Amino acid sequence: MKAEHRLDRIDRQILRILQAEGRLTNQALATRVGLSPSACLARIRQLERSGVIQGYHARLDPFSLDIGLILFVEVTLEGHRPDELARFEAAIAALPEVVEASHVSGEVDYLLKIVVADMNEWTRLREHLAGADMGVSRITTHILMRKPKIFVGYPVADH
User: Order of strands across the sheet with 110-116?
Assistant: First the structure.
């Protein structure tokens, strides 16, 4: 279990800066938030230990990686018992094409973000999702046409 961490003004400032500039050195970050480098690093380590900072990643252009299609897929399951949800979640976790999954409320159970090379690959994957013993009753597919806004981070409000 991760330790709870109450965010103060400086923590929030650190988070805003790191989301926008993840490769910033600790020295530069410390200068920008008005801390010593050791105090800044201690705060970052605490934010990591508590799970507020979950990792550091490079944002890649999927189309530079020979990813032909990006799909948003709505999945409805036949049943909703915990074991049925766990079985589905374990199955999609093992599929590298499923790059993101969210269990949601509403008319569908899951929203998946899937990347494939082409429509043939999606057809095979869709048949696997529908045909395998995952308890899927309905799949609705949306093909990404363009991205007028990309995710660059969560809003970190001052409190």
Answer: 98-103, 110-116, 69-77, 136-143
Domain 62-143, what fold? Alpha-Beta Plaits (3.30.70)
Alpha helices in 50-105 (DSSP H): 82-93
Q: What is the mean pLDDT of each run of 10 residues along the chain (159 residues)?
A: 77 94 94 96 96 90 86 96 95 96 97 96 95 90 92 87
122, 72 in Cβ contact below 8 A? no
**Phi/psi of residue 7, nearest 5 degrees:** -85, 125
Q: Are strands 98-103 and 69-77 parallel, antiparallel or unpaired?
A: unpaired
Query: Which residue from 159, 158, 152 is spatially nearest to 19, judged by alpha carbons?
Result: 152
**3-state DSSP call for residue 62?**
helix
pTM of the model: 0.82
Q: Where are the domains of the chain?
A: 9-49, 62-143
